[in-house]
Amino acid sequence: MKNLVLSIILLLPFVGFGQKLSPDFTISKSEPFKVVDAKSKEYVAVEDGNFTIAVKTDGERITIQKFDVKGMKEIARNVYEDFPKYTKIQKLLKIDGRVYYVFEAYNKKAKTFSVYSREIDIANTSFNKINKLFTTKGPVVVTGEIKQAASAGTFFNFGIMPKFEVVVSFDESKILIRYRNKPKVKDDSKNKDILGFYVFDNKFNQIWGKEVKMPHTEEDMNNLAYSVTGDGTAFMLAKINKSKSFELITVTEAGLKNQKLPIKKGLLFDEFHLKESANGNILAAGYYNNGTEFKADWTGSMTLSRNVNGLYVFEIGKDGIVNWEHDYPFSLKLIKQYLSDRQKKKADKRESKEKAGINDLLLRNFIVNDDGSIVIIGEVSYTRKEMWMTSMTYVTHFSNMVVTKIDPSGNLAWQKKLPKNQAALANKYESVGGLGMSYIQGEGAHYLIFADNRKNAKLTMDKPAEPHKGGFGGYLTAYKIDDDTGEIEKHLILDLTDIKGVKAYQFYVTRIFEAMDKTFLLEVYIKGKKDMVVKMELN
After folding, report:
1. 110 with 119: CB under 8 angstroms?
2. Which domain holds residue 513?
3. Residue 336 is inside which H or E element, if any?
């Protein structure tokens, strides 16, 4: 009954809930231009944000577009069909002022994968020659870590899951490309994974590369996160299941070294993220829970749910020694924000048993500032089978967000919870693609941009957010968070059904990006085989 009521609420018309848009944003739109049908669409700002490059991939047909941000018009477009067979994009990378298209291609006969980079000539909106980086010794499979990292992005939603992860050092001088070979032994208790690590400079000249066998079996070892430092060393964090411990694995041209880490005992982790710090050390962050729980739907079926109790962060020196570690448990006050009265009472009851937490919170962004401070952004996200309209189906939810800042010494600077409540049918990309949030790091501020129900325009701290249904318009909303103080500003940027007289028929959160500080762009489909770019300038 609860889910049926939710479905009915989601379908309520929006008439009567119009709100005044924020005067702090100036909105302008481009002239429509011919749509490019492609499964992957990626965007980067170039030339100090005066122009943008869009790369749109549809199999071996790749289109490059250049857009004039000030003039608000498409100024160039070129189509390429000279890519190898079975090409799949892995990443569009802007580094040291250059833009690279990183892709892989499968050799069906040899059952190997080759990885390439291809620099984009920004001035001419063209591709330079293809640069082959390396070829694997055999088949490669998608890893669990990549699945988790891509779960809210373009690749996952279109089924183009990348097999190769591209990681950049803090100073942008080194690039790591890593992958997992397809196991030759199917028995996890006997198989030891073979992982590939290739390190390049920021022009994709190879420094070193090799495949290494892991020190533990697949059954006993969970590979959690990877990083690369400015000296070209690759790092990997692994959970050892049998001993319930963690290891730092260091990979260099000379080989592999693993050492145990003194991680706080009694905490359960499902994921970790690694980043190089400003001083060349390694930072690790992960949400922890005090137990895995099951939730029952209205039919009595049980689904897995993580009850996240806090954040754990530690810094590792290049010698593998933990410099500092901190546990940041969520306060009951934070947990109860934006919950219903029934949920608040449940949280109070759970707190008496030291089990209150935020269910299904996933780590989305891990930002390292130049001063050594870090910002971590989490978002509640889950998919469950429930009643939608008149039938049982799988529904994807994206809910409240938590933003945490930690100062260079490891002390908690501030922590904020931001309300959001979105849902859509899990198998409809047109709807799910408009959910979640887009993170943009501005000058001295952090922006979380998402589509929201009009009724949440004046949401107060003591009320839960009204549900927003993906694909049903809504307001494009931004939370601006001051990096120093954690002060929050909420802005209603635009109405997706009326962007200066034009309706967006397709909205995807991954198509929001920053052109320059306080200037954001969004490409939308407006029907008639036309696209349009919307410019949002924070005054």
Report:
1. no
2. 1-30+419-539
3. helix 332-336
**DSSP letter assigned to residue 83:** S
Residue 512, pLDDT > 60, answer yes
pTM for the model: 0.91
Q: What is the pLDDT of residue 17?
A: 40
13 or 289: which leads in pLDDT? 289
Q: To which residue do tokens 């590979």 refer?
A: 223
State yes or no: pLDDT of 129 exceeds 80. Answer: yes
Q: Tell how far CA 46 is from the center of its chain.
A: 22
Query: Which residue, 247, 252, 245, is CA-closest to 268?
Result: 245
Question: What pLDDT digit, counting tens, does each position of 68-98 carry?
Answer: 999 999 999 999 999 999 999 999 999 999 9
104 SS3 class:
strand
Contact 241, 220 (CB under 8 A): yes
Structure token digits, residue 303: 């689904």
User: Does residue 80 belong to any structural domain of this protein?
Assistant: no
- Give the total number of structural domains in the chain: 1
Q: How far apart are CA 379 and CA 400, in angstroms?
A: 6
Domain contains 26: yes
CA distances (Å), origin 338, targets 126, 403, 418:
48, 15, 8
Cα maximum dimension of the chain: 67
Which residue matches tokens 């891509």? 150
For the stretch 268-314, pLDDT in tens is 888 899 999 988 999 999 999 876 666 666 556 666 778 899 999 99
SS3 263: coil
Of how many residues is the chain composed? 539
Could you write out the three-class secondary structure of 469-520? Answer: ECCCCCEEEEEEEECCCCCEEEEEEEECCEECCECCCECCHHHEEEEECCEE
Contact 53, 120 (CB under 8 A): yes
429: CB partners within 8 A, 6+ apart: 157, 158
Is the alpha carbon torsion for 205, 207, 208, 214 positive or negative? Answer: negative
In a domain, 500, yes or no: yes
Q: Is the pLDDT of residue 148 over 90?
A: no
Angle (nearest 5°) at CA 264 between 259 and 266: 120
